[in-house]
Specification:
The complex is a heterodimer of chains A (198) and B (223). Chain A is mostly helical and 198 residues long. Chain A is built from six helices and five strands; from the N terminus they run H-H-H-H-H-E-E-E-E-H-E. Chain A has two domains: 4-130, Up-down Bundle (Methane Monooxygenase Hydroxylase, Chain G, domain 1); 150-197, Ribosomal Protein L9, domain 1 (3-Layer(aba) Sandwich). Helix content of chain A is 53%, strand content 11%. In chain A, the strands form two sheets. In chain A, strands 4-1-5 form a three-stranded antiparallel β-sheet, covered by helices on one side. A two-stranded antiparallel ribbon of chain A has the order 2-3. In chain A, strand 2 (160-163) and strand 3 (169-172) form a beta hairpin. With 223 residues, chain B is mainly α. Chain B folds into two domains: 7-154, Methane Monooxygenase Hydroxylase, Chain G, domain 1 (Up-down Bundle), CATH 1.20.58.1030; 171-222, Ribosomal Protein L9, domain 1 (3-Layer(aba) Sandwich). Chain B is 53% helix and 10% strand. In chain B, helix 1 packs across helix 2 (56-75), helix 1 packs parallel to helix 3 (81-110) and helix 2 (56-75) runs antiparallel to helix 3 (81-110). The longest helix of chain B has 30 residues, at 81-110. In chain B, 23% of the residues are buried. Classes of the chains: A mainly alpha (198), B mainly alpha (223). At the A-B interface, helix 2, helix 3 and helix 5 of A face helix 2, helix 3 and helix 5 of B.
Chain lengths: 198, 223
Amino acid sequence: MYAEKACNLIKELSRCEENLPPYNNDLVKEVCSEIKQLHDQNRIDGAIVANESGIANHNSVQYPTLRVGVAATKRNVRCLLAYHYNRLRTLRTMRWEFGSVLPAEIKTNLSPLETEWFSKYSSSLANYMMSIGEDGLNLGLNLRPPKALYIEVRCLVDYGKYELSDGTVILLKKDSRHYLPRSECEELITQGIFQHIV
Amino acid sequence: MDEENEPESIPNENLDLESDEYDDDVAELSLEQVIEIMEEAWLNEKFAPEILPNKREIVEILLGQIGHMDQKVQHLDSLDFKRAFYQKEINRLKFLVTSYLRMRLEKIETFSKHILQQERLRVTNNENLYLSQNELEFAQEYEENLNQHFESVMSFCPTVMNEEALIVKPNMRSIVFLKAKKDIEGILVDESNDITDLSTGSRILICYNNVANLVKSGDVHLL
């Protein structure tokens, strides 16, 4: 059946909503070649169906075939675009979650083109943030409405020494607990160094 | 809150917080107004389906104030009782500004093609742009990257790309909750030509399309 493979692409994506499945290069290639083949076929059919003045002859035997072919091509293209577009959207959300450096296990799931897009997106985002106000504003901070000034966090890795903005140096050891200003640890939480204890 | 008339322009003269000897009362009042405008802009942006005209001046004034307050707090003794209060307020304001800008970015990304089209239209009609300069730059870069990505994905068969199909438009017919800031007469409620009047402070649930102009002119605000 036409467009079945394209539909599988979409299904695969919708199964893992907030996760990024590996880029399915093989299936994308198959869909592409189906589109190409349909496209060529449509052209041949179109030449048969069209009469001398170039307008489609509705009574031609080939006419329904042509209609089906065109619809299938359109559907394939749409699915293909949706697949790529929605992957970029997920990737975009991840940029906000993880910052400009993605975890290695996500990186391996990207196609080279997506990696390229991600770095471009990151840099235009960084440029934008730098241009706000006098000396830039990091929109990656203050993601949630502030509830309390200080929060309790647990350190998940042996990080070593960390300097707070007021100059105090604290030692972050694995499994140590700290009671710190929220603004100081937000970035470390996104990086996965701290865990917020609720 | 409703009796107060929102100042149309930003009261710059009252915002003289940069001077070292500053009067707490005056400063707090004017800062309060700025925050009020910002909060309203934030709510509007949050609930309106389309992007609204930017509030660049307000954002910049508020950012300046936050920076100033930040410095002041640093000078306070860490055991000072006031410090925690100031710090809390600063964090709230920071959230307000960043959240506002983030929501705008999200809209810009989702509707990039549509927004850029509209902005081009505004340039030809000599209207004020909705995006600020840096937002516009970001939108263009984003758009270019997206196009490039699609083009390379579809490069095997360039003839099948249909530009129109790629445009994502906001749903202007979505329903919003709003509150009138002054008496307004003759709002169209739906297609059946039902008309209603709003008195100051009254609230209504209505289709965004019918009130988009009022939101932009600041006569109502969304909740």
